[in-house]
Design a protein that fits this description.
Layout: H1 2-33, E1 35-38, E2 56-63, E3 73-76, E4 98-99, E5 112-118, E6 128-136, E7 139-144, E8 147-151, E9 163-164, E10 176-184, E11 193-201, H2 209-230
Antiparallel strand pairs: 1-11, 2-3, 2-5, 3-4, 5-10, 6-9, 6-11, 7-8, 7-10
Helix pairs in contact: 1-2
Amino acid sequence: MEEGNMKTGIFPRLFVKILMAAIVLVLMVPSAFALTINFATGQDVSGNIQTIGNSLDANWLSSNAANPENPPYSYVVAPNNQDWYSGWFANGPNSSWIAANPLDGHGNGNFTLTYTFNLTGYNLATAAFSGLQFSMDDQGYVQINGITVSTEPYIGGMSYYWTTFTIPANDLVQGFNTLTMTDENTDDWLEAGRLEGTLQINPAGVPEPTTMLLLGLGLIGVAGVRRKFKS
């Protein structure tokens, strides 16, 4: 009887252990392999949001500015800079205003800000964007790989606000992608842009969570068969 009890007690414990391992695998797959990209303007090389004027933006490059400070780089614009406009909302905590030249109120004009990111080897169907919003003085539009995904209404001379938008996964490509903000209808006086949002995407070939769960249940079944033959 003791031997029988031992035999009947071992399998439930084994079942629980394998089931728990399968659940852990399901939970680990997205977090262990997913790539997260933070598009926020104003970041330093460590991903911290900078609020001090003329701080170098680590990700966004500028082009077509009237008088860029140090092309093709972009810099944080703050209240102590000549390019600052009092109608903009304050820098931080999740992003800051940037421009090609924060030291010249007439130095930016209809400029473009570009963020380039590489999705080689990633499953584009798993792309999930969140929190996308932008603002430009006096007006602007956002493009992904040359496709316009949002246009901001003209706001010149008024208090600014966020314009929310989305990016369809179908607009992404394997390899290098470009996210751009372009200023338009400028009065060539006090111009800057600001953007927030993230992308999370899984590598190609990473099993879906349901697949991992089925694998775990399969292991439980194999363990059960092996236990039956040994009994």
